[in-house]
Amino acid sequence: MSLLNYTLRIADSSLILAQRISGWCSKGPTLEEDIALSNIALDLFGQANGFLEYASKLDGNKTPDQLAFNRNEREFFNLQITEQENGNFADTIVRQFFFSTYSFLFYTELSKSTDETLAALSVKSLKEVKYHLQHSKSWMLRLGDGTEESKQKTQDALQYFWQFTGELFEMDEVDIEMSKSGIGVGNSELKTNWDKMVNEVINQSTLERPVDAYMQTGSKKGLHTECLGHLLSEMQYLPRAYPNAKW
Amino acid sequence: MSDNTKVWEVFIQSKNGLAHKHVGNLHAPDKEMALQNARDLYTRRNEGSCIWVVKAEHIISSESEDGEAFFDPSNDKIYRHPTFYTLPKGSKYI
C-alpha cells in the first residue's frame, strides 16, 4: 500500500506538471520555445505513464488511464509546485528550474532503489530531466542577467514559487518507510545539494535567493491549492463526459 | 524575442562517420540556446548523433547571377566524369 502511494506521488507530479506545461503549446514566446516546452511536457507525460503503469499493477484494479482520469482532487498526490499556473514565461521557467533540480537529485537517488521497476523508470527519466534542467538553467541565466524587466519578473517568480519548495524535502511516514527499506529516497537529504545547485544559478543570474518564510504543505495528504481543481476539470473532461471513448 | 536574436543554420549528423547535413534554420540569441533549440526542433524523432549550428551570417553563398561563370564551364567537360571506362563484368557496386 505504501509502495502504491509512493509511486502515485511520483506519477502525479509528472502528470500534473506535464498537463500544465502543455498549456504553452501554440502560445510559446517563440516558435523554438513553443516546441521546447511542448517537448518537456511530452517527456513528463511519458514519465507519468511509466509510473502510472506500475501503480496500476500494484493497485491491481484500476488501469493507468483510470488512475489519471477518474481520481478526484483529494486523491492526487502531486507536489503543489507542479499544479501552479504557468503565469508569464519567467514563472514557468522558475517553476521548472526548481522542480527539475529536485527531480534530478531525486531520480539520481531513486535509480539506486532496491525496487527494480522504480530504479529502471528513474534511469530513463533522469536522462530527460537532465535536459529539462539544462534548458531551465539556461533561461534562468538569460532572464536574470537580461533586461531590467526580465530580471524583475524572474525575481518575482522566485519569490512566489519559493513557498512551494519546502514540500520537496518533506518526509511523512510513507517516505520514511520507503527510505528505510531501500526502496525510496530520503528526501530531506536532498536539500543540501538542491540549495547548492539553486544558489549557484541564482548567483550567476545576478538574482537574489528569497528568504525562507511560510512554506505550503499538504500534497502528501491530497491537499492542494485551488489551481488543481481547474486543471483536472480540463484534463479529465473528455474521459468523464464520454467514458471509454475511443478515437 | 529581443532584437539580438539571430538566425542560425542547423546541420545534423545522422550517424557517426557520416557528413553533417543541412536540415534548416532557427532563431536564437546565442550559441548555447541555438544548440538547445536545434536539439528540440530537429532531433525529436531520433534523427541525429551530432549537431552543428552556424550563424547564418557566417555562411558565404554563391550568388545566382554568378551562376554562369561558376557552373557552366564544367558543362562541356564530360571527361571529368568517369564515363569512358568499360566496367568489368560482374562488378555490381561501381
**What is the count of β-strands of chain A?**
0
Q: DSSP helix count of chain B?
A: 2
Alpha-beta content class of chain B: alpha+beta
State mean pLDDT of chain A (0 to 100 scale). Answer: 97
Kindly give the count of domains of chain A. 1
Your description of this structure?
The complex is a heterodimer of chains A (247) and B (94). Chain A is mostly helical. Chain A has a single domain (2-241), classed as Ferritin, CATH 1.20.1260.10. Chain A has 11 helices and no strands. Chain A has helices at 2-21, 31-59, 64-69, 80-83, 89-110, 116-144, 148-162, 173-180, 191-204, 227-235, 237-241. In chain A, α5 packs across α7 (148-162). Chain A is globular. Chain B is of the alpha+beta class. Chain B has a domain at 1-59: Phenylacetic acid degradation B (Ubiquitin-like (UB roll), Roll). Chain B has helices spanning 31-42, 67-71; strands at 6-13, 21-28, 50-55. Chain B has a 3-stranded antiparallel sheet with strand order 2-1-3, covered by helices on one side. The A-B interface holds A 29-33, 35-36, 39, 131, 134-135, 138, 142, 146-147 and B 1-2, 5, 26-30, 32-33, 36-37, 39-41, 44.
Topology:
The complex is a heterodimer of chains A (247) and B (94).
Chain A: H1 2-21, H2 31-59, H3 64-69, H4 80-83, H5 89-110, H6 116-144, H7 148-162, H8 173-180, H9 191-204, H10 227-235, H11 237-241
Helix pairs in contact in A: 1-2, 1-8, 2-6, 5-6, 5-7, 5-9
Chain B: E1 6-13, E2 21-28, H1 31-42, E3 50-55, H2 67-71
Antiparallel strand pairs in B: 1-2, 1-3
